[in-house]
From TrEMBL:
The keyword Lyase belongs to this UniProt entry's keyword annotation: yes
Coiled coil (UniProt feature): none
Name this protein carries in UniProt: Glutamate decarboxylase
Modified residues (N6-(pyridoxal phosphate)lysine): K268
Length: 464
């Protein structure tokens, strides 16, 4: 290839005169500016992340957070000895989160950053499995069978945990009048092979909080009656950085002695950039030694417990930035505003169609989200509405409820940092316009879940 003049217009470069390499490793080099333009332009077809109300994850960051992320792209968080201050900032975050969740001794609470709640959940589950395996007292003296855990409707990471680590998942079917697991239904599914009960603070289906204190009381009673001592793990992926600020009177965390571990996504309500989660244990006894690997750190060693080895350090660093930038006062103000915005959306959605709110953004009942279902048959379904809204750029998930309510479809919109009152007004105008359009142009056949497809809150296993 001849060397071309730098002054040449970008779009006349030979590299842009034909399609980008797609299926085979490219032979030749092209100028960085051309490669950048190809990649940048292809991404124009992606949805606009801030109009994506299906995601729980951070889609807005201030300039300082972006600067820290770009300044730290070269830092590997596993290199504790080489980047001791990155390690230090991560440890400060662990202590701060332990304090936020009322761990008995925040200075000595074991915890780690992770790539997200999924990794954190796996670690919490693995610790429970190792603890269960080591028990030989009372009802645990008999030979052990296949380990299991009991839960209500959970995010797919728990199905993954079950499959990848050979643990049986006992997902209790929903009662016909409920969207969360009823505490009275927990004990009947537990036995001496139950390694934990998983409670969800911020269900992915509806945004509702489960009754963690109710689960704890049930399990306390079970222990009294049978000797079975079953720990609680709280999946607080989205509630972990909300409830402490907007519903401090809700008791769901380490204030309940039965709660032994908690996971949360820093990159959801923690306001950190994508790729940040937290796993925290109640005390050192709750994190089995077998899960710990030591790495060099300032002439000594530091414990690590992660599924990955190399991971970017910027996420934990920027999480620390968010913690010290906002503090309790700032997080409370930000999250209360999201609840207000969610309630504004709820008030507008309910009268727009034959809709019944499941969660209206009430901070005592759930996260900063709104979920609703249809109360009567009409000439469109929620998948059709989702599809219409997509034509205006709004990404809003519609999906069936879990068993035993899988016949019902719900729609959910998650309100996050950067989504304003005014954007809700724009969205509501489009909801009303879409419904009007669907009435005026009734579809011959409504969309199915697969056809509405593309984005969901979840993933489905390919084989049973
Ligand atoms: C999002 C979510 C997860 C998975 O978290 P990631 O950070 O996406 O890995 C797990 N549980 C619940 C309840 C969630 O909302």
């Amino acid at each position: 290839m001849s060397v071309r003049d730098e002054s040449e217009d970008l779009f006349t470069l030979p590299a842009l005169a034909h399609g980008a390499p797609k299926n085979r490793f490219p032979e030749l080099s092209i100028p960085a500016s051309a490669a950048y333009q190809i990649v940048h332009d292809e991404l124009l077809l992606d949805g606009v992340s801030r109009m994506n109300l299906a995601t729980f994850c951070t889609t807005w960051l201030d300039d300082q957070a972006r600067r820290l992320m770009s300044e730290t792209t070269d830092k590997n968080i596993v290199d504790k000895d080489e980047y001791p201050q990155t390690a230090e900032l991560e440890q400060r975050c662990v202590r701060m989160v332990a304090d936020l969740w009322h761990a008995p001794d925040p200075d000595h609470t074991p915890g780690t950053s992770t790539t997200g709640s999924s990794e954190a959940a796996m670690l919490g589950g693995l610790a429970a499995k190792f603890r269960w395996r080591a028990r030989t007292d009372g009802p645990y003296a008999a030979a052990k069978g296949v380990p299991n855990f009991v839960c209500g409707p959970v995010q797919v990471c728990w199905e993954k945990f079950a499959r990848y680590f050979d643990v049986e998942i006992r997902q209790v079917p929903l009662r016909a009048d409920r969207f969360t697991l009823h505490p009275d239904d927990v004990a009947a599914h537990c036995d001496s092979n139950t390694i934990m009960v998983v409670a969800t603070m911020g269900q992915t289906f509806t945004g509702l909080y489960e009754d963690v204190a109710g689960f704890a009381a049930t399990l306390d009673d079970l222990q009294q009656r049978t000797g079975l001592d079953i720990p609680l793990h709280v999946d607080a992926a989205s509630g972990g950085f909300l409830a402490p600020f907007t519903a401090p009177e809700l008791i769901w965390d380490f204030r309940l002695p039965r709660v032994r571990s908690i996971n949360a996504s820093g990159h959801k309500t923690g306001l950190a950039p994508l790729g940040c989660g937290w796993a925290i244990w109640r005390s050192t006894e709750d994190l089995p030694e077998q899960l710990i690997f030591d790495v060099d750190y300032l002439g000594g060693s530091m414990a690590t417990f992660n599924l990955n080895f190399s991971r970017p350090g910027g996420q934990a660093i920027t999480q620390y930035y968010e913690f010290i930038r906002l503090g309790r006062v700032g997080y409370t103000a930000v999250q209360e505003e999201h609840h207000h915005v969610a309630r504004h959306l709820a008030q507008g959605v309910e009268p727009a169609g034959p809709f019944e709110l499941i969660h209206d953004g009430d901070p005592l009942r759930g996260i900063t989200a709104v979920s609703w279902r249809m109360t009567e048959e009409t000439d469109y379904n929620l998948y059709d509405l989702s599809d219409r809204l997509r034509s205006r750029g709004w990404l809003i998930a519609a999906y069936p409820l879990p068993a035993d309510r899988q016949g019902e479809t719900v729609m959910r919109a998650v309100i996050r940092h950067g989504f304003t009152h005014d954007m809700v007004d724009l969205l509501l105008a489009d909801v009303r316009r879409s419904i009007d359009h669907l009435h005026r142009h009734p579809l011959e056949t409504s969309l199915t879940r697969q056809e509405a497809g593309g984005f969901t809150h979840d993933a489905t296993p390919r084989s049973a």
